[in-house]
Every structure is written in C-alpha cells, then in structure tokens.
Amino acid sequence: MRLGFIILAHKDLHRVTELAMFLSKSDCPVGLHIDQNADPAAYTKLLKDLSAFDNVHFAKREKCGWGQFSIVKATLNAAEALFEHHDDLDRVFLASGSCLPARPLKQLKAFLARHPNVDFIESFSPSDAKWVKDGLDRERFTLFFPLSWR
C-alpha cells in the first residue's frame, strides 16, 4: 500500500515540520502547501528543516482566504507537487497542518488495503440534508460574495 499525504498549512509551521518529517520517515511522501500568508521566518525555517527529506515536495504557494477558491488551488498545487514525483500512489490522504495521526500509519494502510474500492470522503446532496443551521442554504451554491469575510 503506497500512501501519500497532501498537507495544507498556514500556521504553527514547527508542528507542520514535525508532521512532514514523521510521514516522510514512515515512507509516506508528502505534497506540502504553505499559505503565502504564513510567517516568512517560520516558512524559511520549515524549508531549511525539511530540505534533507527527498520525499517532501513543496507546492506553488497561494494566498488563501477562508471559503475561497484559493483553498482548492492550494490543494491542486500540492497534489501536482506530490504526483510529479510519486505517480505510483494507491491512496492520498488530505490533511491540514493541524492533523496528527491518531493511530499508527501501519494500521491506516492495512485498513485502506482492506477497502480498496471505497473512497473515504464525506459528501451528500444539499437537497437531502440540511447542513446549515441558520442563514442561507441553497444560496451558498448560487450567490457569490466578492470580498473575504474578514
């Protein structure tokens, strides 16, 4: 089971460094996107600390905003960085910089190997499930707000 990780991060880059090192040492290649809004000094240190890990690949950076398409672009950039060097992966795990494995990676790989035809991604039809407690619902798909919420 060849498992790769995509990590999207914007803060606590020392923790992201630890996570990427752990995954790399566990034979899990990483495509890493660090938000352009991240602290420049922390980003420089992350680059230096991960430079010896040849299976950690850095994505073209995007300036990300909450709820904006830039998050999708960041994900695609990280996937491109990962697959450019590792086109033999069986599965890819999308994680944030705040994610930490709760179980050993060996168990995760075994679980995924037992479910080869299952994609573990949450999805549902908005007409079947109410996922917004208050406020706009369907309008989230039809209306566009041109400014960041901040």
What does this structure look like?
The chain is α/β, with parallel strands linked by helices and 150 residues long. It has one domain: Rossmann fold (3-Layer(aba) Sandwich), CATH 3.40.50. Helices cover 36% and strands 14% of the residues. It has 5 helices and 4 strands. It has helices at 13-25, 40-50, 70-85, 105-114, 139-142; strands spanning 3-9, 30-34, 56-58, 91-96. The protein is globular, with a radius of gyration of 17 Å.
Oligomer: single chain
Strand arrangement within the widest β-sheet reads 3-2-1-4
Rg estimate, integer Å: 17 Å
The number of distinct structural domains comes to 1
The main sheet comes to: 4 strands, parallel
How would you sum up the global shape? globular
**Care to count the β-strands?**
4
* Overall CATH class: Alpha Beta
Mean pLDDT, all residues: 90
Helix content: 25-40%
